[in-house]
Amino acid sequence: MTAVLLALAASLTWGFADFGAGMGARRLPVVVVAAVSQAAGLVVAGVVVVVSQESPPSARQFAWAAFAGVVGIVGIAAFYRALAIGTMGIIAPVTGTASVVPVAYGLASGERPSTLQAAGVALAVVGVVAASLERTPDRRGRQVGAGVGLALVAALCFGWALVGLSRAASGGAAWSVLTMRAVALPLVLLAIAASGPRLQVSRRAFGLLVGVGAGDAGATILYGIATTRALLSVVAVLASLYPIVLVVLARVLLAERVARAQLAGVAVALAGVALISAG
């Protein structure tokens, strides 16, 4: 049960962090949002490492964490590009299937969830996809399938980032996140140098992005700990419920309409969580 609560807490925190990142990206270049949030996450992870006094992980665990950091940043780049050229109602559900990768990896590695957990995993994945669906007005000149390929790349990258973190977390979740941010931040800074966006960030926006980075790092640490206490094929699905949080926040704070399919998706996902917890 502890692993379930940790994974759900990670999902909730990721949802808030992603919502804040989305608000920041409306006013600032995506690379700037990524740079500030990644830097804040690096500081948070470093503080946790110092306070917890965890021993450094092995070289293999470092390598897995670095891998997770690289594929995670590539996934973010592909995801935002897909949103820029495609239809949200198609892109979001595709990227929401990222949990399929760690589930498949866990099963291939010999994990065998109980019957209830397996049913819960299936319901949760379907619910997340349904909750991510949005009604988007038709736009002339935009191809329906535009961006789907990039969305698949993003889903694949996010999924493998979850796998990489799970493999690295046994050497210390905080160390894993610190390594991920230490690898990802230079890549983002290189992107800024190449694109040359203006770096004028207001104090309010800077505070928001620092909060985003801190929340993202905290959620990632919680997920890492959860993977050391339960099956990856179960934990990864629970931690991937964050699209539901985004739907709720958009409805409450931005007054966006929630379609019936989205509400049904939330209910199905919660039913999946209940089955996983019971198993």
List keywords for this structure.
0% strand; globular; 279 residues; mainly alpha
Description of the molecule:
The protein is mostly helical. The chain has helices at residues 2-25, 30-52, 59-85, 88-95, 100-108, 115-132, 148-168, 173-195, 203-227, 232-239, 242-253, 260-278. Helix content is 78%, strand content 0%. The protein starts with a helix and ends with a helix. The chain has one domain. α1 crosses α11 (242-253), α2 (30-52) packs antiparallel against α8 (173-195) and α4 (88-95) runs parallel beside α7.
Main sheet record = none
Radius of gyration: 18 Å
Class from secondary-structure proportions: mainly alpha
Average predicted local confidence, pLDDT: 82
Provide the low-confidence segments as ranges.
138-144
**E-strand count:** 0
| Number of structurally distinct domains | 1
Strand content: under 5%
Q: What is the overall number of helices?
A: 12
| Percent of residues in helices | over 70%
Span of the ends, CA to CA: 10 Å
Taken in chain order, the helices and strands follow as HHHHHHHHHHHH
Large-scale geometry? globular
